[in-house]
Amino acid sequence: MKNIKEITQEELDDLKVVVFDLDGVVIPVGTELKENQDGTELHIKSHQLSAGFINNLEKLKKHLKIGFSSGRNILYLKSLVNEIFDKRIILQAENGNITFLGGKINHPIYPDEYFGQLRDIKEKIKEMMKSDQRIRGFEPKLFILTVHCDEMEEIPNLVKEVAGDKLYCLWTNEGYDIGSVEMSKGEAIKNLAKELGIKPKQIMTTGNNYNDQEMLEVGKGVTVKPKRMAAEYFIEHKKEELGGELLAEFLLDYFKSRD
């Protein structure tokens, strides 16, 4: 891996899009979620983008399209960027299952069997919640299942039992994302490149966790956590800093110097 400072002028000039992961990249990690057992009450507390980052994105989108790729739901992503939302902002939610681009939402078509498997897994986890305090509840999603809980082998084992190898079960630091192995953030970046008529490597991607690996490989990858996730480039940052914010500053400084 190379430091982002080693990226060439030719590579930077070739970029058309930069896509940021959220948690641990442009917002601090840490979502509070608590759901009661019958699902009638749900409390969620999360973070917002900093004012400085929003200001830098407003300037940066004069040079690049700005994207966000997350396991989070599309409504949350939209709420994060309301201040700067326009046709140059791209949202990819639920680990690539939903893409908001050019005023339209695109998503894969899944068979009834897929949704049935997610339903069965959720019902079994809800049964576990009755006696297991490690499970806190479910984040609202359309195409994937996200359970907030401690790291526990019972849930990956349950997914394997219900669906075999057809579903992934990825640890997110706050719980597990469960979804189809046929869709990922990487596949969403490939689809985005086709829609825009560009090459995947003209999309700079950032990430720090396991659901980002394919996206980092498909695009011009920049990892903000090189000890966990490999990519072509990495960005150095202190513990109290967010790597995605520093990357935006780096790109903005380059484009300013070019003007």
From TrEMBL:
Annotated organism of origin: Candidatus Portnoybacteria bacterium CG_4_9_14_3_um_filter_43_11
Molecular function, one GO term: phosphatase activity
The protein's name in its UniProt record: Sucrose phosphatase-like domain-containing protein
InterPro entries documented for this protein: HAD-like_sf, HAD_sf
Pfam family, one: Hydrolase_3
GO cellular component, one term: cytosol
Highest taxon of the lineage: Bacteria
